[in-house]
Design a protein that fits this description.
The chain has 15 helices and eight strands. With 382 residues, the chain is α/β, with parallel strands linked by helices. The chain folds into two domains: 107 residues, no CATH class; 200 residues, Cytochrome Bc1 Complex, Chain A, domain 1. Helix 9 packs antiparallel against helix 10. The longest helix is centred in the N-terminal third of the chain and has 18 residues.
Length: 382
């Protein structure tokens, strides 16, 4: 099938009031379809056409390759995106797929051929390597009947299995990416951690809210309200299927770069000394109040169900979510802080003007400052 014919089929989604999209994430290729129940048959027919007869022709491939390369070139003008990319590169080792941006690196993108795309599609896009999430007012028996009708010719394949070794640093490392003329510094600080499925998820959730996960968190109050270094600082536990990390991110004026890093590290050390009851109560209350908002739209419900699949969580996981959360005690959170926050083993990434910030970074007392390019490659000093 030619790309022109297939694109005309894509346009038919709009004609029946449906929305169709494809996105690539760190753990999955996400195909989304939202349609009126009255048009479910036609929408499923078009969806199977996309799956079984994709537009994998040379013209389409070259167009999409150019778009990806353009996006990667634009990244060089975005310090925050550079900081995110470089942090992931250093958080996970080079043998770990999560160390690469979803779009890939320019050299890799240029070297990909149409045959590579076809081979990947043939090996990975199959029913044995897929999951279907449906949210709507459609009886299960009717849904099964329609799926059997429209997906009957989708041939079985193999389920992907990738073994990833999680890397952990045993020392503090500081990386700088020079951005000529920048008056601000993008800061990313963090370390590898345990998978979501390794336990203590709710303890880590509460801990993060107190440390840096909400507006009233310790890190944000320190850097924004007390010191005036930033408009906002935020922390989070990053959970992928096969790797995980803890991250603090912020943007500050160049003159405050060193002080901001020092204050973040200070807060990470301080929380290991314990939290207060009012902090625990406020974090629980905040999470409880926000929880229903995660299920307001069809897309949100579907997204949460997808997370169950990615992390191999039970189907009734959200039924006991709040009771699991609210059962946690101060002692649980204090033990979690000692176990999961490692201020002496940090990867510190700073994107800013080296002339303005280098002395500040040297004053932090880190044993070595490593300069990188925007892709996270070390720049060898002459």
């Amino acid at each position: 099938m030619t790309s022109e014919r297939l694109f005309s089929k894509y346009g038919l989604f709009d004609l029946i009031g449906s929305s169709f999209g494809i996105q690539c994430h760190n753990d999955d290729i996400h195909i989304t379809l939202q349609t009126l129940t009255d048009h479910i048959d036609r929408a499923l027919e078009l969806l199977t056409l996309v799956l079984l007869e994709p537009a994998l022709d040379e013209k389409s491939f070259q167009r999409e390759q150019r778009k990806v390369l353009t996006s990667l070139r634009q990244l060089s003008d975005s310090p925050d995106e550079i900081a995110d990319l470089v942090f992931d590169r250093k958080l996970f080792n080079d043998g770990n797929p999560y160390s690469s941006p979803v779009y890939g690196f320019p050299g890799d993108v240029k070297n990909i051929s149409l045959n590579d795309i076809k081979s990947f599609y043939q090996e990975n896009i199959n029913p044995d390597n897929s999951a279907l999430v449906v949210v709507g007012n459609l009886p299960v028996s009717s849904l099964k009947e329609k799926l059997n009708k429209y997906f009957n010719n989708w041939n079985p394949g193999r389920k992907a299995s990738i073994k990833i070794n999680q890397s952990k640093s045993d020392q503090q490392k500081l990386f700088i990416v020079h951005k000529e003329g920048s008056v601000q510094s993008e800061i990313r600080i963090g370390h590898a951690t345990e998978l979501r499925t390794n336990g203590d998820f709710f303890e880590r959730l509460i801990l993060n809210h107190i440390l840096g996960g909400q507006f009233s968190s310790r890190i944000n109050l320190n850097l924004r309200e007390n010191k005036g270094y930033t408009y906002g600082a935020h922390s989070s536990f990053i959970y992928y299927k096969s790797s995980a990390g803890f991250l603090v991110s912020t943007s500050v004026g160049s003159e405050n770069t060193g002080n901001a890093i020092a204050e973040i590290i200070k807060e990470m050390k301080e929380i290991k000394n314990g939290i207060k009851k009012e902090e625990l109560d406020f974090a629980k209350s905040s999470i409880n109040l926000r929880f229903p908002g995660n299920f307001e739209t069809y897309g949100q419900v579907a997204g949460n169900l997808v997370s169950l699949i990615i992390h191999s969580l039970p189907h009734n996981y959200f039924d006991s979510y709040l009771s699991n959360l609210n059962s946690k005690m101060i002692s649980d959170i204090n033990e979690t802080a000692k176990k999961y926050i490692h201020p002496d083993n940090l990867n510190i990434v700073v994107v800013g003007d080296k002339k303005l910030i280098l002395q500040q970074l040297e004053d932090l007392g880190v044993s070595e400052i490593i300069e990188l390019d925007i892709w996270g490659n070390q720049i060898l000093q002459s």
